[in-house]
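#onboarding

Welcome to the new folks! Below is a worked example of what a typical request in this channel looks like: someone posts a single protein sequence, and someone else replies with the predicted structure as tokens. Don't worry about understanding the tokens yet, we'll cover that in week two.

Example request:
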Amino acid sequence: MRDLNKILTKLNSVCTQINNNMNYEKPEFDSRKVSKNDLFVAIKGTVSDGHSFIPKAIELGAKVIVCEELPENLDKNVNYIQVTSSSEALGIIAADYFDNPSEKLKLIGITGTNGKTTIATSLYNLTKAMGYKVGLISTINILINDKSITATHTTPDQITINKYLNEMAIEGCEYCFIEVSSHSTVQNRIFGLYFSGGIFTNITHDNLDFHKTFKEYIKDKQRFFELLPKDAFALTNIDDKNGNIIVQNTKAKKYTYSLKSISDFKSRILESHFDSTLITINDNELWTSFIGNFNAYNLLAVYACAVLTGLDSQDVLREISILKPVEGRFETIKSTDGISAIVDYAHTPDAVKNVLTTINEILDGAGQLITVVGTGGDRDTTKRPEMASIAVELSNKVILTSDNPRTEDPEKILDDMQTGVRIDQKRKVLIITNRAEAIRTACMMAMPGDVILVAGKGHEKYQEVNGVRHHFDDKEIIEEKFKNK
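Example response:
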């Protein structure tokens, strides 16, 4: 049993109705998971309001209710705590329930529109290779040393995060790297965690279905850095025009990284190929199997973070030179007749532009670039025409297709994308709704020396149609087609 009294003052409560002792078994915010003597936190969500499920939670045995609005009829056998923010309260309660595990680790958060997964995963691989026990919470999976757990969200809920951080602490992990999505910041999923550092990658057009305006999106990214303690570090990409704005209100010590400006950590690309890149990091030259300008930023952030956490700079450089790219991030597949296919998770206008620009720079006119791209359903619709426009502008041929249509009509999504294609560009565009058929068509169209980019899904092994996930793997389809070409 846990005693809520010891953290009551941290909950910013406005009213309490205490009828008996405050001991409880475990916290829950999903009323369906409540059992006898549990604590239920009623959270107002985007789809449903947890306050509606307070009676159900009490029926299932909840003895403590934490809420923003007290019910009209109070049960005399239940304790009620009214707070200004239920989601913040859940963060504090969850951290306390698991004995504040974030304080036992060097917890580093990575936020930004692009690059989060690559940086977090690369930091995990680097520190693990250097002999440390380490954890990872990312879009792809959750790792506790060698134990792998499938991820369902970029950043999990408050209880799940603290549960896994506690497992990491028990397993002796010294580090944990976590992707911090802007959704998670708004919904206070990281509230109550103690971070040793934070990294900002960039901010571009994305998630405006959730944040409504770009100004709000920036504000939500800022909030993560405002939560950092003063003994943490805040590492920001100052080549992004909002890089300094994002960290302007942080109490943490600020550091900068850049490819173009004077900064604490600096990198430059010397040579680029489809299988390797020669870069400098703080005047040290090294070859890496990571490709592209965007990955130079990612590796620089990895280096800077590792050094800021106290690792030896030369050891870090050595490990960076042998790091392998993250699955589904500029992952290259070659056919026996000299065609290259690249699978990349790029699903924002900026990410698609970065990948296509990199491919064109390496191709240098020596082959055709065929792009297969779509956009997800039930998400920001304003980026659809922009994604198509960028793809057509920077490719020789484009096949517009489905991504994860979710509950939307795939044809409607493609209609939205086509509004970004000018009349004089339509001759270089094909519309193939079936994604597998679109990929196969691109493979058939390609000639030796050409490059195919399949963008949008990257590491994902499913396609979500009408709310159901079906097995689907871009890489699998390419390999099968190349084998039978």
